[in-house]
Design a protein that fits this description.
Elements: E1 11-15, E2 18-20, E3 38-41, H1 44-54, H2 62-74, E4 92-96, H3 108-120, H4 122-130, E5 135-140, H5 146-151, E6 159-162, E7 167-170, H6 183-195, H7 204-226, E8 230-231, E9 234-235, H8 236-239
């Protein structure tokens, strides 16, 4: 049995981020044929470790998040790891994360923080401003999203763009849901999806624009490195997860 050693209470089945009841037919819970399911199984020891971690005063709770949101309204830059804001016009309008249930980690607070880091990255801000991009919502992509299956062969599994920038989804978490993907890879995915604001198919014009966006992103960070820009004691290059040379290979690869 694949779940031997795990107590039934600690086995969860998820579909699109929602917990399913094992006592009811899947169809009655809105699960369609062909939908992807994710099974999470935790030992009693793991559950106890998470429970103790929640009581840690250094872990922010919902009240702490409310206070943080009030701070964001007063000073938007305070919620950005870059200590920066988006362009007032060419920006991401809203942010959305998947509300996974424990023991999935990291917490949704951390995935939202990553989305905000991407949105306020000086290189991304430069891209949005230069190309007059506005995206209604930047959202975490659910690894079990049925839309991935519908895209078929050749679809982008790390992100997708709906309606030419109405919404952009990025797969922020690792496949096992226990960590976040490398920042430079997330930037690459975001630039790829932003290119779909102008071009749908992966044709030559699309790849030309994608190359232009990457070039602008890297030139922006090369200038920050030349100026010796430091954010909260961390160099801009390190915060962007690129080396001191700003080599394009650092954010290369398929989006």
């Amino acid at each position: 049995d694949a779940f031997s050693g795990f107590e039934p209470d600690f086995v969860k089945v998820l579909c699109r981020g929602k917990k399913l009841s094992l006592d009811e037919p899947l169809g009655s819970q809105g699960v369609k044929a062909g939908s992807k399911l994710m099974v999470l199984a935790s030992s009693a020891a793991e559950v106890e470790r998470v429970r103790l971690a929640k009581s840690d005063p250094t872990v922010r709770g919902f009240e702490g998040e409310k206070r943080l949101e009030k701070g964001r309204l007063r000073d938007p830059a305070a919620s950005s790891p870059w200590r920066a804001e988006q362009d007032p016009t060419y920006k991401f309008g809203k942010f959305e994360v998947v509300a996974f249930e424990p023991p999935v980690a990291p917490h949704p607070f951390e995935t939202e923080k990553m989305l905000r880091k991407l949105a306020t990255d000086p290189g991304v801000v430069a891209v949005m401003r230069e190309h007059n991009f506005y995206v209604g919502k930047l959202a975490e992509m659910d690894p079990a999203d049925d839309k991935l299956a519908k895209r078929g062969e050749g679809g982008c599994t790390l992100g997708y763009n709906e309606n030419a920038g109405a919404r952009i989804y990025v797969r922020v978490r690792t496949d096992d849901l226990r960590g976040l993907r490398a920042y430079r890879g997330l930037v690459n995915t975001l630039l790829h999806e932003l290119s779909h604001n102008a071009f749908g198919p992966h044709t030559e014009p699309f790849w030309r624009l994608f190359s232009q966006l990457k070039g602008l992103y890297l030139r922006t960070h090369a200038e920050l490195q030349r100026q010796g820009t430091v954010v909260s004691g961390v160099s801009a290059g390190r915060l962007a997860d690129i080396d001191e040379s700003g080599d394009a290979r650092d954010i290369g690869g398929a989006g």
